[in-house]
Amino acid sequence: MNLITESKLRFLLKKGIPNPFILKGEDKLTPAAIDFLRDRHITIKDHRLADSSLSTETTPTIFMVPVGVSNRHVHLAPEDVDILFGKDYSLTPLRELSQPGQFAAKEQVSLLGPKGIIQNVRILGPSRGETQVEISKTDGFQLGVYPPVRLSGSLEGTPGLTLIGPKGCISLHQGVIVAKRHIHMSDEDAKVYKLKQGDSLLIQTSGERPTIFMDVVVRVNPNYQIDFHVDLDEANSAGLKTGDLVKIVGKNGEFFT
Fold this sequence. Notes:
Elements: E1 2-4, H1 6-12, E2 21-23, E3 27-29, H2 31-39, E4 44-46, E5 65-70, E6 73-75, H3 78-85, E7 93-96, E8 103-112, E9 117-125, E10 132-134, H4 137-143, E11 149-150, E12 162-164, E13 169-171, E14 176-179, E15 182-185, H5 187-193, E16 200-204, E17 212-220, E18 227-231, H6 232-238, E19 245-251, E20 254-255
Parallel strand pairs: 1-3, 2-4, 5-18, 6-9, 10-14, 11-14, 15-17
Antiparallel strand pairs: 5-19, 6-10, 7-8, 8-9, 8-12, 12-13, 15-18, 16-17, 16-19, 19-20
């Protein structure tokens, strides 16, 4: 296996990194190397997955999509930050996330449901309009709540639970969801694939547990970095981890072939 690291890519900068960056044979990119290329807007293509029998009219250029595995987390409205951590409190960035302007905060809360509690749940910033808790189905069994699978922000009719912080607690009447799998992409990426906001994709994984994820919702924004988001349950079922690469094999219920 030819492991391509960030250090190797930095060395290549002296001569210039080709765009697109072609993977061949036993090449494998580390997660840091994927981020390095993505930050420089360098497309990753995998010739090992190419099939000369496919029609170029129906199949887009092979463009590998990095995976972002999303563990349980909380988005807080500004007023709820004040209740949980104190008046005029500001969340403290711990590390940047794949999407520009978003970060994992140092602050954590506990989730209390009818049947159990989960402690040390990370808050993601910055604050947003309405508090939202994203958990997995497995987490729901532990807590005793059974949230629907929804896109972020679609909170009507969802269950609630109690958030416990160092300065106070909040009883949510709604706001708990299992995040629907989706893919973030910029306007430029959407143009390459001839996609639009709300399209449904088929995503293929590789490895020991190859899987095809259906109904992956496209979310388009000029500021997005391309990223395929799944929760921990789905990632474990397919043997995925953050930084792995998957490919788009169809859209709106039909395979490209």
